[in-house]
Design brief:
The chain has about 425 residues and is mainly α. The protein has one domain. About 90% of the residues lie in helices and about 0% in strands. Helix 2 packs parallel to helix 4, helix 2 runs parallel beside helix 7 and helix 5 runs antiparallel to helix 7. It is elongated.
């Protein structure tokens, strides 16, 4: 494609500038101003992109992960508590009723909060919508089961089974799907917060600006027999200061992001998964008893969940004390199963919902909750630290670049005046 005549004329004039000293100075000035302006612009965009990614990670992606786990754990615990209350027969114990109601309230609150963090029409929004409508149906089924159970009607067990099936086949899978999406968004959030593309471009521009400043001063020193051009020396010093400032800010951000991931979001995800498995164990235990001999599905699921949880507890995030507490709960569970298998159903129910087994289980889950809260605090602290210097980069990066351009203009303009 031929180059337009006007454009050819522009290129010819620019090419002609290199044949005279004033022309070469004009080209040098143009290169410095162009690189300076681009450096300032990209510095601001880099700071803004990194700040936005860090803010989104701390204000949306990570909270969504926690809310998804809260939804799962609240619904799983509600299912377990409903089954335990059903096992008690007649009028449910007030403590279990209160716990069940609190679980549903936690779930609905977390669902509402998650809805505000998910884009409309996204896969996450679909899961949140399914959860929102499903929790109401689940609560209605449990209410019917409880009403029938109080009257001694066997059909109550069917309604409880239907509620549990809705919970396990629809609600909990949707909560897990939301948890998976949130994990992916957290991983993507770290990449976004790092702003690698902008950082690489900024590094290239700063190196280019430094190179032109050094070569320009070398040329001026040879052509004018002056050792230093003070404004250009000042521009070079400011460019080095800008480079060092950017390095400090971005290195600090990268370090804090690394700690936020290693000490915060990664442990939270692992411990949350362990808590999910623990709640499945406890739910399977109660539902096996409620099924009265036809709960083989729940028994199988308990075994699978225990194996997965045992493997997960080998992770560095879990202490020996937590592993011992889980072993103590499993020992209590085996006693429950021995009583039930030997025909002592009432004894098995009494042990399952009694203080011995309950305290063993709650001691374990309380320990998990403590670990989650500790790592959530670590994440919040590190994310806050990661975003501190980015606002300065967004503002002072362009200002320093503007000052560099002004010094470059003054330094070259003074030499150009000598040719008039």
């Amino acid at each position: 494609m031929p180059v337009p005549r006007r454009r050819r004329g522009v290129f010819r004039r620019l090419g002609g500038l290199r044949h005279s000293s004033p022309g070469r100075l004009q080209l040098l000035l143009g290169a410095l101003l162009t690189l300076g302006v681009l450096t300032g612009l990209v510095a601001g965009l880099t700071g803004n992109s990194a700040a936005g990614g860090t803010s989104d990670l701390g204000n949306r992606a990570q909270p969504l992960l926690v809310e998804a786990e809260t939804i799962y754990s609240a619904l799983a615990d509600a299912d377990t508590t409903a089954a335990q209350a059903f096992l008690a027969g007649g009028l449910e114990p007030a403590a279990l009723t209160q716990r069940y109601n609190e679980d549903l309230e936690r779930a609905t609150t977390a669902i509402s909060s998650a809805a505000r963090r998910t884009p409309e029409g996204s896969e996450a929004a679909v899961s949140v919508g399914t959860l929102s409508s499903g929790v109401a149906r689940y609560a209605a089924l449990v209410a019917t089961a409880r009403a029938d159970n109080r009257q001694g009607l066997p059909v109550g067990a069917s309604y409880l089974s239907a509620a549990s099936e809705l919970n396990r086949q629809t609600l909990l899978p949707q909560a897990q799907n939301l948890f998976r999406i949130a994990q992916e968004e957290v991983d993507d959030g770290y990449s976004s917060a790092s702003s690698i593309g902008w950082v690489l471009l900024l590094v290239a521009l700063i190196l280019g600006l430094l190179a032109v400043l050094v070569l320009g001063q070398r040329y001026l020193s040879r052509s004018t027999h002056r050792t230093f051009n003070v404004p250009l020396v000042g521009a070079t010093v400011l460019t080095v200061v800008l480079a060092l400032g950017i390095q400090v800010v971005l290195a600090g951000q990268h370090s804090h992001l690394g700690r936020a991931k290693d000490d915060g979001s990664a442990p939270v995800a692992k411990v949350a998964e362990a808590r999910i498995l623990a709640l499945r164990e406890r739910g399977d235990e109660a539902l096996t008893l409620a099924a009265r001999g036809s709960g083989s599905t729940y028994t199988t699921d308990f075994t699978q969940s225990s194996e997965q949880l045992g493997s997960a507890l080998g992770n560095e995030y879990f202490s020996t004390d937590l592993r011992d507490k889980h072993s103590a709960y499993l020992a209590a569970h085996r006693k429950v199963r021995e009583l039930d298998d030997n025909g002592d159903y009432d004894g098995a129910v009494k042990l399952a919902i009694g203080p011995e087994t309950t305290q063993q289980f709650e001691s374990f889950t309380t320990g998990l909750n403590t670990v989650i809260e500790e790592h959530k605090a670590d994440f919040t602290r590190e994310i806050g630290a990661a975003g501190r210097g980015l606002g300065l980069l967004t503002v002072f990066g362009p200002l320093l670049a503007l000052l560099i351009c002004m010094l470059a203009f003054i330094g070259i303009r003074a030499r150009l005046e000598e040719y008039r």
